[in-house]
Amino acid sequence: MALQAATSTFCFSAPYLRSTPNSLTSNRRSISIKATSSSSSSRISNSGSNLKGRAVSSEGSTQESPYVVCFGEMLIDFVPTTSGLSLADAPAFKKAPGGAPANVAVGIARLGGSSAFIGKVGEDEFGYMLANILKDNNVNNEGMRFDPGARTALAFVTLTSEGEREFMFYRNPSADMLLEVSELDLDLIKKAKIFHYGSISLITEPCKSAHIAASKAAKEAGVILSYDPNLRLPLWPSADNARDEILSIWDTADIIKISEEEIVFLTKGEDPYDDNVVRKLFHPTLKLLLVTEGPEGCRYYTKDFSGRVHGLKVDVVDTTGAGDAFVAGILSQLANDLSLLQDEERLREALMFANACGALTVKERGAIPALPTKEAVHEALLQSVV
Question: Is the pLDDT of residue 2 over 50?
Fold first, then answer.
């Protein structure tokens, strides 16, 4: 699959690596655009003259009714070419498309599943590049919108020598924050089997209202709701605000994936390895709660059973996107057969597959460029039992 746009290396002088203060409110109206002028239509390959604010996939590149629709942010990650240095000391950065919901959408498609992405980017070179990357990876991008007054979000990633990362975001505001309810493709949402989202889209209006409206439409249509909070504290006004907003939609989700660190945060410091603590987060209508533990694998909790599935040991280069690859792995399996939720043995097999997806992703830099194919995952699983 062509990802040439995702492998460029950019060099920046240290004086320009300044963080722009976050602006969490905006009185600017977020609008859809018709990307049909000569300056923009050529940037989205094979897009027709009836675009009307959406980047349409080329004919035959996606299925008509995607199994999994992913909602939220898509952005550009700038990943340092050398690990273990501060952003100011990094000699160069690799440009990589990212954003958790978009990563999941591409991950599912790369595994052979059917997916779509709904979100907003800037009417700029990066925005058009991201729309094309989705299309090139067989992700339905008809729900994507472009904002002429805001830029596509950027994130600079600091990598430790072990491949762990920290983020510095450029959103002032970025286009993803400005998606409006009126711009939602509700038909696309209602046709989904699973609707997946995070919490970053809850931070500010108008995107918060769009998020809530999209989730409501999906729920009313009988679509399974999948939630990965994907905590990014620097983006929130305060830790308390982040906790309150993340939990405000908790009880509507059917599937929730969280990390050990997020359990500590949401429970205000309780032990993430204590099953009694985790069970506090299991609401009455939840079908599956997943706790990821990095290289150690994951834990799973349903109403009837719980357990642990060990992960694969690999050499870590960059952990960006590992959790998203895991989510893509499990959702791709559940989209094919939701009865896995009632069969512990088969669910464990699906989680072994998801763990392998996450493990393979950390072997390369960047999120989307590193997401594995189904064949690569099966090969890794076979090698792990040899």
Answer: no
- 327, 371 in Cβ contact below 8 A? no
CB 360 within 8 A of CB 314: yes
For 24-61, the pLDDT digits (tens) are: 333 333 333 333 333 333 355 433 322 334 333 333 34
Q: 346-378 in b/e burial notation, b at 16+ Cβ within 10 A?
A: ebbebbbbbbbbbbbbbbbbbbbbbbbeeeebe
Is the omega angle on the peptide bond into residue 206 within 30 degrees of 0, that is, cis?
A: yes
Q: Which residues pair with 307 in a beta bridge?
A: 300
Query: In terms of pLDDT, which residue wins out, 25 or 333?
Result: 333
Q: Give the pTM.
A: 0.83
Q: Using DSSP bridges, classify how beta strands 288-292 and 298-301 pair: parallel, antiparallel or unpaired.
A: antiparallel
Reading phi first (left if > 0) and then psi (alpha if -120 to 50, else beta), residue 186 is in: alpha
The backbone torsions φ and ψ at residue 177, rounded to the nearest 5 degrees and listed phi first, read -75, -10
Q: What is the DSSP string of 339-371?
A: GGGG-HHHHHHHHHHHHHHHHHHTTSSSSGGGP
pLDDT in tens, 260-313: 999 999 999 999 999 999 999 999 999 999 999 999 999 999 999 999 999 998
Q: How far is CA 22 from CA 108, 170, 171, 235, 326, in A?
A: 31, 7, 6, 7, 29
Phi, psi angles (nearest 5°) of residue 285: -100, 5
Is residue 150 within 8 Å of 102, Cβ to Cβ? no
Specify which residues 68 forms β-bridges with.
115, 194
Separation between Cα atoms, residue 257 and residue 228, nearest integer Å: 5
DSSP assignment, residue 151?
A: P
Count Cβ atoms below 10 Å from residue 123 Cβ, excluding itself. 23
- Asked if 41 contacts 47 with a C-beta cutoff of 8 angstroms, the reply is yes
Q: Tokens representing 153?
A: 């979000």
**CB 43, CB 125: distance < 8 Å:** yes
Identify the weakest region by mean pLDDT among 14-23, 240-249, 336-345. 14-23
CA distance 375 to 136: 19
